[in-house]
Amino acid sequence: MFCIEMIQLLQSVTFSYFGLMKKYDFLIIGSGIAGLTYALKVAEYGTVCIITKASEDESNTKYAQGGVAAVWDFEEDSYKKHIADTLDAGAGLCDEKIVEIVVREGPQRVQEVIEWGAKFDKTKTGSYDLGREGGHSEHRVLHHKDNTGLEIERTLLKQIVKHPNIDMFSHYFAIDIITQHHLGVEVTRRTKNTECYGVYALNVETGEIETLLSLITLIATGGAGHVYRNTTNPIIATGDGVAMVYRAKGKVENMEFYQFHPTALYHPGEYPSYLITEAIRGFGAILRTKDGKEFMHLYDKRKSLAPRDIVARAIDNEMKKRGEDYVLLDCRHLDKKKFIEHFPNIYEKCHSIGIDIMKDMIPVVPAAHYLCGGIRTDDRGRTSIKYLYACGECASTGLHGANRLASNSLLEAMVFSHRAYLDVIKKLRTLTYKHGIPKWNAEGTFNPEEMVLITFTRQEVQDIMSNYVGIVRSNLRLNRAFERLELIYRETEELYQRTVVSPELCELRNLINVGYLIIRSSLVRHESRGLNYNTDYPKKLKVAKNTVL
């Protein structure tokens, strides 16, 4: 039976005597905005190790186009308005206390990034050029052209490399969180004091699995977009952090709420999908069907500036009704000079594939974009496992509820990395390293005969999730996906137990784990709310509850 306990992927409890062991006060898994801002702050209090499975600058942060939402113009905007917009987008499932924390503390965290060197666009008068996106009642999005995330990532990495207390290792793949389980102690979901002592990580360049011990560990691994066939996420987004925490018996919640960005560029053969930022609709672009007709007024009074769940479902419905592969984003009426000034990369991308945005409309489709659920955390980034924190897209803080408001993600990462930092420095002096942690055991394993089987299986997982667990779901589709994934899970576990660990195999296991969590959470939620639309339960329940697995 393919059940919650079976998907808790197996961890070895016998170990050999090879592989390096390193010790740090702080261990950070991931090099996006959450991990880097946290690292810069805790580095003043101890040694820091950052590991990332790709290059140093490869993260979801790097690809964030639109910007970061924060109340900046208090004459036109207010905390109250930003809070109201966030709660409205979250469809009744946001934690109001968390929303207020993020909105009120956010501007100060943005100011820190500015002081570190991030440059956001300004008007001719010197004030910040604030954008507006779907779901926002005011202009409050600070941005750098259409590559805000890249500008922030560049700024933070520049500070990181200068700090003497920070070691950064690229091409290190975190495999599993180390807990009492690895000391021979039984750990279940009912265990009250599960503790994190660090991680086992594969050094991709040497092939060795190293033991990284730490006093405090932060998971900042980003999202899981590649559980779906079409996604705007970079190829590294395979849900590694969520899967590791779940395997370690940590709490995960609201995984059914996967946000599909309404407007990814329709360009068959390109993978991942190129994002067409929501800020373009805030700039005045209009969604149309292939015959040139507007349609968003049929779904929401805010038209093309409705929240993402509404726009994505509207586009999905229009495509299915008409039997068409895409809809169109009309920018032809916009000022060309201003468009290029605000969105130079999107302009060049369209031009490179033969689209003149002043003459042609841009073909767009929804694509998997952002995980609104994830590792359950409190208001200081603490997970259900002691000494383990989570921040950024992999964490479920209570901010997003059933649907994230555009450009709230970078803000959330900055606020909670700061709050986690404040919490950990208070307890650092009381902590000691755990002794007796065994090294990884690879005895009896061999290299897989056909790596292509892993690639094929990954594509199969993506097809299952895309066909059965997409924007519109049903119990029939979800149960069918569950059954299909069970067989893949069994085959992959057998392969994992007998072969040498590789990044490709680890990512596959993590994607299967994440797919299971999304399906299971969707089956548990007997209502349609936010990003979870189930045709068997088309209405919202009166009382909104989190789905905790």
Characterization of this structure:
The protein is an alpha/beta fold and 549 residues long. It folds into three domains: 296 residues, FAD/NAD(P)-binding domain; 112 residues, Succinate dehydrogenase/fumarate reductase flavoprotein, catalytic domain (Flavocytochrome C3, Chain A, domain 1, Alpha-Beta Complex), CATH 3.90.700; 82 residues, Fumarate reductase/succinate dehydrogenase flavoprotein-like, C-terminal domain (Methane Monooxygenase Hydroxylase, Chain G, domain 1). Helix 1 links the parallel strand 1 and strand 2. Helix 3 packs across helix 10, helix 8 packs across helix 9 and helix 12 runs antiparallel to helix 13. The longest helix has 24 residues. The N terminus is likely disordered.
